[in-house]
Amino acid sequence: MNWAEQIVQTLKDWDTSMVVYVPDISIHQVTSLIDEDPYFRLVSATREEEAIGIAVGSYATGRNASVFMQSSGFGNSINALASLCIPARTPIPMFINMRGGPGEFNIAQVAMGRAVIPIMDQLGLPHFVLEDDGKMDKLLDGAMKLCHANRQPLAICLTQMLHGGKIA
Fold first, then answer.
1. Model confidence at 167, in pLDDT bands (50, 70, 90)?
2. Dihedral sign (CA 11, 12, 18, 21)
3. How far is CA 161 from CA 99, 102, 103, 115, in A?
4. How far apart are CA 168 and CA 108, in angstroms?
5. pTM, rounded to two decimals
6. For the chain, domain boundaries
7. CB 104 within 8 A of CB 167
8. Which of 49, 50, 73, 157 could be stapled to 129 by a disulfide with Cβ–Cβ 3.0 to 4.6 Å?
């Protein structure tokens, strides 16, 4: 099972059938699998704070949700996380395609890519970085357990090293 298939399987294992995303070429490897699977409801959002709002609404109506975004878009989601998701204790796993690391070609991606982890630390958001698919199943399962048991959002950061180096 490759990394994208493992993420899809973990979402199923944790009854997370609503997936909200802001389109991105690297997470497309996951969202294309989700789009083909009738178990899931895949919703494209125009902005990351919209994706967080949709996911919180889904959870409020009894359907577990996750959000996929790029690290540059994480900056857009901060207010929705800090003023809605965190105080409402909503367990939303966020899968974030990290930009600005080794091999980055777009200088505009570097500053936010570096800022994501420190911002999550300031907000008290747990986060895990995936650089390869070794023991990925255990990490994902543990992260989902933490997310739901503590009723809090958390981030799974997907690096260029994990998803094959494609950045665009």
1. very low
2. positive
3. 11, 9, 10, 19
4. 12
5. 0.94
6. 3-158
7. yes
8. 157
